Amino acid sequence: MNEIEVTLDLALKHGLTEEEFERVKKFLGRIPNYTELGCYSVMWSEHCSYKNSIALLKTLPRSGGRLLVQAGEENAGLVDIGDGFAVAFKIESHNHPSAVEPYQGAATGVGGILRDIFTMGARPIAALDSLRFGDLKNPKTKFLLNGVVKGIGDYGNCFGVPTVAGEVYFEEAYQDNCLVNAMAVGIVKTNRIAKAVAKGKGNPVFIVGSSTGRDGIHGATFASEELSDETESRRSNVQVGDPFAEKLLLEATLEIIKKDLIVGIQDMGAAGIICSTSEMSARGNSGMRIDLDLVPLREDNMSAYEILLSESQERMLVVGKKGCEEEIKKVFEKWDLQCLKIGEVIENDLLEFYKDGKLEAKLPASSLVLGGGAPVYYREWKEPEYFKQLSSIDLSNLPEIRDLNAALLKLLSSPNITNKNWIYHQYDYTVGTNTVIQPGCDAAVIRIKKTNKAIAVKTDCNGRYVYLNPRRGTMIAVAESARNVACTGAIPIAITNCLNFGNPYDKEIYWQFKEAIEGMKEACIVFDTPVTGGNVSFYNESKNHTVYPTPVIGMLGLIENVIHITSSYFKDEGDLIYLLGETAPEIGGSEFLKEFFNKVEGDIPQINLKFEKHLIDTLISLIQKGFIKSAHDLSDGGLAVAIAECCIMNRKKKIGAEIN
Amino acid sequence: MFKAKIFIKRRRTILDPQGKAVELGIKSLGFENIKNVRIDKFIEFEIDEVDEEKVRNEVDKICDSLLANPHLEDYYFELEKI
Amino acid sequence: MFKAKIFIKRRRTILDPQGKAVELGIKSLGFENIKNVRIDKFIEFEIDEVDEEKVRNEVDKICDSLLANPHLEDYYFELEKI
Amino acid sequence: MKFGVVIFPGSNCDYDTYYFLKFVLGVETIFLFHKENSLQGADVIILPGGFSYGDYLRTGAIAKFSPIMKEVINFANKGGLVIGICNGFQILCESGLLPGALTKNNTLKFVCYSQNLKVVNNKTFFTNNYQMNEVISMPIAHGEGNYIIDNDGLKDLYDNDQIILKYCDEFGNITQESNPNGSIDNIAGICNKNGNVFGLMPHPERCGEPIFGNTDGIKIFESILNK
User: Fold this and answer.
1) What is the domain extent for residue B41?
2) How far apart are CA A523 and CA A461, in angstroms?
3) Which of A281, A512, A649, C16 is deepest in the core (most CB within 10 A)?
């Protein structure tokens, strides 16, 4: 493979720009060989380097409060909840693979996010899925929906994590680019947290778990490119998930951490071996000498290029403590998993990869990684015309709706509002015996065993609002997810986010991105919910569709005492119904406007963040005083739909409501 | 009337977790000399049609559009006159 | 070295919901002249053994004790010298 | 009374069951790893829910060859108490300790919700704390709970009173609509002729604490304890 002559043209084909190719030459002091070029191309792809977003992401509130690690430092966010426990949580996207092969795309998305959690030593205790598809009447949408839901269910159910919450939207904008965001939440004792770091000269480096094949090579770059016929042909075969192997990997990983046998561990996600070796080394400002001949392979005569870039699933990189090699091997043997020493840590900032005794690649580890040598760009933006045009449309003269009963029924049966138990009944949401509030309510509530506490988790984002007004739409997304967890009695404490946008090199798209980040920053400061990390997914567009800008918020709330846990539905006759907050004639971008007039326009609702925070604090104190029997957040469909939901959700008893 | 016998086989380069687990099971029975276990699908059905050529096209279309997942599987079939 | 090709077929008396669902799928594609769709398993693996008789017994034992469930399935297999 | 919870590779309700027995019921409970070949003096063996060996090939097909299963089979044949929950029930059928087999749900979809059950036999080690024909509810979560058995086998089950739990509606009627997976005669749980081996698809360990608003599962274990 290395005989291939590396030219600028080859670098461009690998997705690197001319400047980036020059930058590589500067780091190496020479022209990179084919394998080294592949490493830079995948590590500097949008997916791994965040080069077009990190500059703005850094402006978000990313520390303070209960955070134990700074966002981006580790594989997932980590929040202290007292009693010696911390919660690890994160959300990630697997949009492009799911558009190609929905079942495996979604399944490997769940597998990847679960590994991000247990690589920190945390046992996953909840999973959520935030999905967006095209119009439900379109057969392709039905095919994708069926595949994605079955993939998420089969993986989560077999692995043994309850899938407890999420949301799904059907909008024309997602027709060619479905969004499949998977979130996972884990619990870890604060004295058992594992780091994704490599240090200590001579410490052994292991690859553990499944064998390596040619799955998903260019997977990382594939995710950062528009879905066009060209990318269709170039992608190599699809990644396949094995939840059974992942469950064994979980148990073995937690065991070696518990027995204090390792220095650091990281899961292998995008860009497989090259990503984990470079990121772990850069964090410990050390390097590694790796012999690729020792990597267990699933296919024969794989080149160094393919082994380094392969994204085969259910694999981890472990840096063990010198002298503990046998004990580490014994743990993996117990769980019938492969565990092979493939090299060792070296002092200086250098990665050396050997194959058949030949030095195939020699690269400074820090030069590859985000925060190190990866490029950082400040893109320009331009406010699109549609923004002023659509938000200035006057909606006060819409034709009067006569039959309100029919109108409510029509709204309740719209795909975005109707009951989703067809989906979550395919998920095991009670495994783990911690699920107190089950799917279908405002947020899921998971009790923490051996404490009196519980956590509330929810994902939220109204793509239409963010399209019409990215800044205020994102504020609304954060506020809504905070209100949802507050309705269960939980104090909002931190968020993760999955930013699904179009092409960052398009100025108008980047304006949407910049505005969304601004809105998220303001809201997170007021709600005191720092951003613990997350994921950016650009290029969610194709020839004739660009997705709505969709910054999905994953909110974590804390319930100090399980007696405060509150569900959403009406309980008993004679209970009083209160509406907190003000109502204004705002139907811009509403579900009502879409269902009845098929329009997505108008100014979206105003939001006063300070008032929202005050509203949430009041609701929580009312709950803590024991005055509240149920609480439900008003969102899509407004008051009428919310009242109807409060009645319908009570499975055990027929109940109604009288409103004046 | 024809009988179609269709083999849906997962492409050899794509991971077969089921094959891996069954290999583990066979070995736990004490048969160490086994390798490359693959689990695939075998589908049969009858087609009420006389012209073999037409049957061949029909079965081909059914496999291509429904029975086999183009990203993961290949297929081949035999026809038997009954 | 031998290659075992094993067919695990669900006994015809036992309802096969998967076969029924696939039959519906085929019909929804417009092929009305299809019936009796059956979905069964086809398992392959290699056995490092020279004596065919020994291989035959080994594969038989593997099928009987693991690969087929006597309540539901029958099996037959072919051996191929490779 | 010591309980032994078996861990197969792929079991995922092992800790749930262990936590319920040890911290909720407060009984002595140990884990039994599938590679071990001693039951360490346990009086009751539990095969928990999960996806043993990923449920590849057939649910429970590979688990029956684990070393621990030889011991469990001997223990059961000598009259020891064994409970198989969900995947555990599938393993008991595959290993021949219980008749019949569990196959794919007729909906071809995984089902997870709270299911009504009727206790059709309360004269067993596992259900003597329930009333006869009592209607209870337990969470179910499975993709292959469709119990099948040939006619003679079914006749045997009725003749020896081996059918213990049936899916029903909230009023206790055994109806087709209340059957979540297509099981023959709505069968949800059976025991062997001797009555010491019990397999059921629903999860009693998931409804044993007041916080979940349903404690119908406790009586299964309480039945054993005051056996």
Assistant:
1) 2-81
2) 14
3) A281
ipTM of the complex: 0.91
CB hemisphere CA count around D148 (13 angstroms): 22
Contact of D16 with chain A, judged by CB distance below 8 Å, is answered with yes
- Which residue is listed with tokens 């504020």? A475
Q: A650 CB near a chain D CB, below 8 Å?
A: no
Distance CA A85, CA A76 (A): 15
Decide if A31 contacts A6 (C-beta within 8 A). yes
C41-77, pLDDT tens digit by residue? 999 999 999 999 999 999 999 999 999 998 889 999 9
**Residue type at C31?**
F
Q: pLDDT tier at A221 (50, 70, 90 boundaries)? A: low
Report in angstroms the alpha-carbon separations of A457 from A401, A440, A487, A519, B8: 37, 13, 11, 21, 41
A218 annotated active-site: no
CATH of the domain at B11: 3.30.1280.10
Q: What is the mean pLDDT of chain A?
A: 93
Give the closest residue to D199 by CA, choosing from D69, D93, D78. D93
- Nearest-by-Cβ selection for D61 from C14, C21, C66: C66
Name chain C contacts of D103, Cβ cutoff 8 Å. 14, 72
Say how many C-beta atoms besides its own lie within 10 A of residue A336's C-beta. Answer: 15
CA angle A332, C46, C49 (to 5 degrees): 105
pLDDT tens for chain B, 82 residues: list them.
999 999 999 988 888 899 999 998 899 888 999 999 999 999 999 999 999 999 999 999 999 989 998 888 999 999 999 8
With an 8 Å Cβ cutoff, are D182 and C67 in contact? no
Interface membership of C57 toward D (CB under 8 Å) = no
Is B33 exposed, middle or buried, given 0-12, 13-18 or 19+ CB atoms closer than 10 A?
middle
pTM: 0.94
CATH number of D2-225: 3.40.50.880
Angle (deg, nearest 10), helices A609-624 and A470-487: 0
For residue A225, what pLDDT is reported? 59
Domains in chain C, number? 1
Could you give the CA distance from residue A643 to residue A658 in angstroms, rounded to a whole number?
A: 10
Angle between helices A18-28 and A34-43 (to 10 degrees): 120
Contacts of C24 in chain D (CB under 8 A): none
Q: Which residues contact A281 (CB under 8 A, 6 or more apart)?
A: A198, A287, A288, A345, A349, A351, A365, A366
